[in-house]
UniProtKB/TrEMBL annotation:
This is FAD-binding domain-containing protein. Residues 7-371 form the FAD-binding domain. Gene3D superfamilies: FAD/NAD(P)-binding domain. The lineage of its organism: Eukaryota, Fungi, Dikarya, Ascomycota, Pezizomycotina. GO terms for molecular function: FAD binding; oxidoreductase activity. Keywords: FAD, Flavoprotein, Oxidoreductase.
């Protein structure tokens, strides 16, 4: 039973696709190929926060040691808040759960996710352009067409190709992502490029909270492996008309970020100076923040066939604003859920398995999308009185507890008890 021998094609080798591939290997799916459009696997130059709920899954894959070598160690709290102008401490949120959040460079997380994956399942330079739904007997349900003219045949397609997903388009979903009203400026500061006091402060996860803007610092990596740096994410409200690049990702003068924070506290000025020291061309990454509305149905089935279909995973299905640090974490949770369900499904009807997966995941990812939007308003201050008097980090922490304390492995065991055959499972 289950679909363990079916040909599974993952489209996209970002953090979502790579997590699904790890999950597929862990669950025991036998015939999985990943297709990534870029000639080499890589990630945008920025930090990422992987929280308890996702670390539980990565630890099950055996990646704890590898991740620990590359990420922050023993941070004193989950997040500390400071007033944007005075620099005053406003309060903090305690770490939620065990294992604690791990902060690391995105490329280092990708390296960990690649460690256990056989080279033979990775295909680079394969940009998916279309999917044929074949009707003739005796051939595969789907033929994938890539930009380089090559093709591949498969039974199941997992669209992990991000918020602008081609797979999603190919499924006839014509909606567009929505601009959030914010852009993010992203860069790194070496601790040696900061005054000692500021360097000390930024070895914690710190949010300088300003009106409709905030500057978040993720202390990624660790001293032992010389991977430690302060990853800077400046969330700034800007009208889309000011965006002059066709892509959502571009490079911007550090001056533009400085313009936003000109009257902010000395520590933020130290950050700007540190960014300049680390950037010979005076530029940093700038990205327009988009999110999609939750989607009603994440999959389609092949006409007349019970065991072939296409499904979305990660940002292609459930994108979210990053204000609770959950986009990648949700993809990691979804990956283990989908792989386990495909491998251990008791029946033969793939649409039932897909539906079970969606019912398990969608209430949670929809809620994360909604609460991340709200958390963004609190992470900055959208009303002036929220800057100090009414701002309560503890309440903010309470709002996020349900995310971090969740254990998808337990949930799968519990909710899947009737429909999954856990024989041979590592769960
Ligand atoms: C500022 C910011 C901060 C964030 N911080 C966090 C955080 O701290 N923690 C967290 O959990 N999340 C965070 N996120 C969210 C996280 O970045 C995303 O949710 C996550 O990267 C989504 O992964 P994905 O693999 O679904 O999509 P993507 O990362 O977009 O990857 C898609 C992959 O598919 C490939 N691809 C695209 N089209 C094709 C095609 N046609 N054919 C083949 N390949 C294709 C792409 O090249 C890419 O490799 C943050 C996001 C932002 C913007």
């Amino acid at each position: 039973m289950g679909f363990e021998n079916k040909r599974v094609a993952i489209i996209g080798g970002g953090l979502g696709g790579m997590s699904f591939l790890n999950a597929a290997l862990y669950a025991g799916l036998k015939n999985v190929q990943l297709y990534e459009q870029a000639p080499q696997f890589g990630e945008v130059g920025a930090g990422v926060n992987i929280t308890s709920n996702a670390n539980r899954v990565l630890d099950a894959f055996g990646l704890k040691k590898s991740m620990t070598e590359k990420s922050s160690h023993q941070l004193p709290c989950y997040m500390e808040y400071h007033n944007y102008k005075s620099g005053d401490y406003l309060g903090h949120i305690e770490e939620f759960s065990h294992p604690p959040a791990r902060l690391l460079h995105r490329a280092h997380l990708l390296d960990s996710l690649k460690e256990r994956v056989p080279q033979s399942s990775l295909n680079q330079g394969k940009r998916l352009v279309s999917i044929d739904r074949n009707t003739a007997a005796g051939i595969a349900p789907y033929t994938l067409h890539f930009e380089d003219g090559s093709t591949a045949e498969t039974d199941i397609v997992i669209g992990c190709d991000g918020i602008k997903s081609n797979v999603r388009k190919d499924m006839g979903l014509a909606d567009s992502p929505n601009y959030s009203g914010q852009v993010v400026y992203r860069g790194f500061v070496e601790y040696k490029d900061l005054p000692e006091d500021t360097a000390q402060l930024l070895r914690k996860t710190v949010n300088f909270r300003g009106p409709k803007r905030h500057v978040l610092i993720l202390p990624i990596g660790n001293k032992e492996t010389q991977t430690d740096r302060a990853a800077i994410i400046g969330f700034m409200s800007e009208p889309l008309e000011a965006w002059d690049s066709e892509s959502w990702m571009s490079r911007s003068d550090i001056d533009s970020l400085q313009e936003h924070v000109r009257d902010w506290c000395p520590q933020v000025q130290d950050i700007i100076a540190g960014l300049r020291k680390g950037s010979p061309d005076g530029k940093m990454l700038k990205q327009a923040l988009y999110v999609r509305d939750p989607l009603d149905k994440w999959f389609e089935m092949k006409d007349g066939q019970k065991d072939a279909g296409i499904i979305l995973l990660g940002d292609s299905a459930h994108s979210t604003l990053p204000h609770q640090g959950q986009g990648t974490c949700m993809a990691i949770e979804s990956g283990i859920a989908l792989a386990t369900i495909l491998r251990h499904w008791k029946g033969e009807d793939l649409s039932e398995a897909f539906q079970f997966y969606q019912d398990l995941r969608k209430p949670r990812t929809d809620r994360v999308t909604q609460t991340s939007y709200e958390a963004g308003k609190l992470a900055s201050s959208d009303s002036p009185d929220q800057l100090t008097e009414r701002f309560n980090p503890e309440a903010l922490g309470e709002r996020m507890k349900w995310i971090m304390e969740y254990n998808v492995l337990e949930d799968l065991k519990e909710k899947g008890a009737e429909v999954l055959d856990f024989h041979g499972s590592k769960l």
